[in-house]
Write a structure and sequence with these properties.
about 450 residues; alpha/beta; seven-stranded parallel sheet; six-stranded parallel sheet; 19 helices; about 45% helix
Length: about 450
């Protein structure tokens, strides 16, 4: 039993205690915690940190998170574990504390990186560790060079697109488990089924993944509706023209923007000087997506999170809600850390029913007081959808059911994305394990739709 449990002002779930014990005493404090979203990975990491400090096994600890989660981590460690971590600010002295929290983006900057690499840590914790999936990035490079006895990686989505992403995470924890990178890739390309089987076996040595369906602690019904949106005749003509645009990448970008909103498409076409299509845009009436959104707003009287990948779409939705006299808040990467905390606080405590967010709000943040998500446009990565849903389908959710609405433009690239998403979900299940429903209420419905494409 953990010595620190008697010091805590709350009682953690049994699976959280067991996870901490296994990592501490069976995995040498080098592990990937890949619990499904909303099961409390921060609590598990907090238990490990508290136990190491309580028993004197660690003195110097570093936590690196996305910038938007720094304050949340500090608050949770302080309130639940009585730990007062130093939040790094400016200058080299920012890293001088024994227990420090900082953003990964700040840590990797050259002026800070050198100070981190000079230190030796007893434990390093990385939240949203899927940001380390690419070994060619400065994120991965920094973490690979840190001098630390223990390393804990936290992410519900350790693989998002490719098998190599799991390999890159495992290499940070236990590089001896696999051959060199080129050897891994060559072997995988020649023996994909064998490699996936080997990968899953070896992951047992470094990964813990708790699943909602195996635990009797979060009985939330996840209701998912696929909203297939019909195009108007002017929209069909616009889509036909942008599909024929020269340059595969440009055409793909325009199609993706079109599927989000005509407002997102407008800026790109204006920069290209394509006034013919711009003239067609001006003939279009209100987006059918907004009409569906209006119905959702009428059906639900709690708080609603609307996600989009594009700032221009965010502003487009905001203009519509303003015309309808619906109160709303905007959450995006343009906000500074303090502003983000202020917006989150307003959404929770004030009578403001809607928050429109880009993917800046899709990771790590807690919105248990909200029970509806609208994916106004779908990312091409199913794990991003799962991260979005995890903002409300998590421990502490006040409702028995949460509602997810996925918008898809019929007859467009967005329909074909479903095929890609289903393939990625299948690969994730083969390598990592089960995944809750994220696109439709049942897989048969998904495969029926794919069959029609």
């Amino acid at each position: 039993m953990l010595a620190c449990l008697s010091d805590l002002p709350f009682t953690p779930h049994e699976y959280q205690v067991l996870t901490a014990q296994k990592i501490l005493y069976e995995m040498d404090c080098r592990a990937l915690i890949a619990d499904e979203v909303g099961l409390g990975k921060t609590i598990e990491a907090g238990l490990i940190i508290k136990e190491l400090l309580r028993t004197g096994q660690a003195k110097k600890i570093l936590i690196l998170t996305p910038a938007s989660l720094v304050q949340q981590w500090w608050s949770e460690l302080n309130e639940k574990f009585g730990l007062n971590f130093w939040v790094s600010r400016k200058g080299p002295w920012a890293w001088a504390g024994q227990c420090v929290i900082s953003s990964l983006d700040k840590a990797k900057r050259e002026e800070h990186r050198q100070y981190l690499l000079e230190n030796e840590y007893d434990l390093v914790v990385i939240d949203e560790a899927h940001k380390l999936k690419n070994r060619k990035t400065s994120n991965w490079s920094l973490v690979s060079l840190l001098k630390t006895k223990g390393l804990i990686l936290l992410t519900a989505t350790p693989m998002q697109n490719k098998v190599e992403e799991i390999y890159n995470l495992v290499c940070l924890l236990r590089p001896e488990l696999f051959p060199d990178y080129d050897g891994f890739l060559n072997y995988y390309q020649l023996n994909p089924k064998t490699m996936i089987s080997d990968l899953r076996d070896k992951l047992q040595d470094v990964m813990i993944r708790n699943l909602t369906q195996e635990l009797d602690i979060k009985n939330i019904n996840r209701n998912i509706s696929l909203i297939q949106v019909e195009l108007s005749e002017p929209e069909k003509e616009i889509y036909k023209r942008i599909k024929a645009y020269p340059g595969t990448f440009l055409s793909l970008t325009l199609c993706k923007e079109f599927c989000s909103s005509l407002s997102a498409l407008y800026d790109t076409l204006r920069k290209k000087g394509d006034y013919e299509i711009l003239a067609l845009l001006e003939e279009c009436e209100i987006s059918p997506k907004l009409k569906h959104l209006d119905l959702i707003l009428r059906c639900h009287h709690g708080k609603i999170l609307i996600f989009t990948e594009y700032l221009q779409t965010q502003f487009y939705i905001a203009r519509y809600l303003n015309q309808q006299n619906v109160k709303f808040l905007l959450f995006n990467g343009m906000l500074k850390r303090g502003q983000k905390e202020w917006v989150k606080d307003l959404f929770e405590k004030r009578d403001i029913p809607v928050m429109i967010s880009t993917d800046a709000g899709s990771q790590g943040l807690n919105f248990q007081y909200c029970d509806v998500i609208v994916n106004f446009d779908l990312p091409w990565n199913p794990m991003k959808v799962e991260q979005r849903i995890g903002r409300i389908d998590r421990l502490g959710q006040k409702s028995d059911s949460v509602y997810i609405y996925n918008f898809v433009m019929k007859g467009t690239l967005e329909e074909k994305i479903f095929t890609v998403l289903s393939e990625k979900i299948s690969l994730f299940k083969q390598c990592v394990g089960e995944l809750n429903k994220i696109l439709v209420d049942n897989e048969e419905e998904l495969y029926e739709m794919i069959g029609r494409l």
